[in-house]
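Protocol step 4 of 5: obtain the predicted structure for the target chain.
Materials: sequence only (see below). No template structures provided, no constraints applied. The aim of this step is simply to have a reference model before the mutagenesis design in step 5. Sequence pasted as it appears in the construct record:
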Amino acid sequence: MSGMDRAQDTADRAGGERLRRWRMVLGGGEADGTGCALGGRDAAMDAALGALYGGDGGSRKGSGARSAGLGGSAPNVARWLGDIRTYFPSSVVQVMQRDAIERLGLSTLLLEPEMLEAVEPDVHLVGTLLSLNKAMPETTKETARAVVRKVVEQLEKKLAARTRATLTGALDRSARISRPRHHDIDWDRTIRANLKNYLPEYRTVVPERLIGYGRAAQSVKKEVILCIDQSGSMAASVVYASVFGAVLASMRSIATRLVVFDTAVVDLTDQLDDPVDVLFGTQLGGGTDINRALAYCQSKITRPADTVVVLISDLYEGGIRNEMLKRVAAMKGAGVEFVTLLALSDEGAPAYDREHAAALAALGAPAFACTPDLFPEVMAAALEKRPLPAP
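Step 4 output (structure tokens):
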């Protein structure tokens, strides 16, 4: 084969691959314009995509056309779940599962143990299961707990070590001492404090005054109250906050309280040793009364100057708005560090009440969305009483 023939063959293959990809995107039918037929694995992948994204309620017919719908039976759905796990990576499978639950109304099928065993566990699936908790039959609850536990253990493995290290450092730095041991010297602050003692002839600074870190004692140094909105839109935030709550509770120098609320307030602190129990103690959905929740949190504060209150809510308040703001102002006036997170998740910019967010910002408590990766840094800043690293 000549060089020209080889170049043409390469171009033909590239063009064929391009058509194949467009065919997978467009879904086939008379209007896609590719004229490309699929076979084997490609056809099976296309069928799995078509069952979910075919559109028009399955009305598109014809050769190679997708038709949406998985049928109403658990076996059909379980087979589809198996197919997508075969053809797509885990991250894509999780997105497709979420879309299937939302687009095709598969929530009720998750009440069947066989279905739960077939799904790929993730944070969003946990949120769906928690919203179905009250309707879940006993035969399904153990399977559901196993699914939730798997996700919680994955999150703890990913987040716990970094969170503990970051917050331990913050607690150490918050306990400054003036006669530190050599390995406890804060060299950055020490040098800045002694710049007036610079000796040009020796090109050195004489450290008359040493500034160091005091190692965090085993006794409780700070108190943290996590106050979590459990309305339906906050599902992912509830999952992450429960995991972080368990991590904080495992640190002896931090006394952690976890409170969830809708129109009622529930204190789940005594279950913090197991975040799965915390999650099944929540009840996603319902209204919102932030003022009532903050009133409860305020009643539990005994050391205001050493307390951080973290409100995780989209701020759509169903209670008394002015009273809510007065409580925040009173807590801050007493020395409490108050943090407002509009979401604690990776879902992007959340919907939230902008008027309430602006009112809190005016009180010196800016509200912002926070990813799980940023949360340890936010908590460290709050513990040290320095500006929060808001995105």
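Step 4 remarks: The two ends are 58 Å apart (CA to CA). The CA atoms of residues 24 and 46 lie 6 Å apart.
Proceed to step 5.
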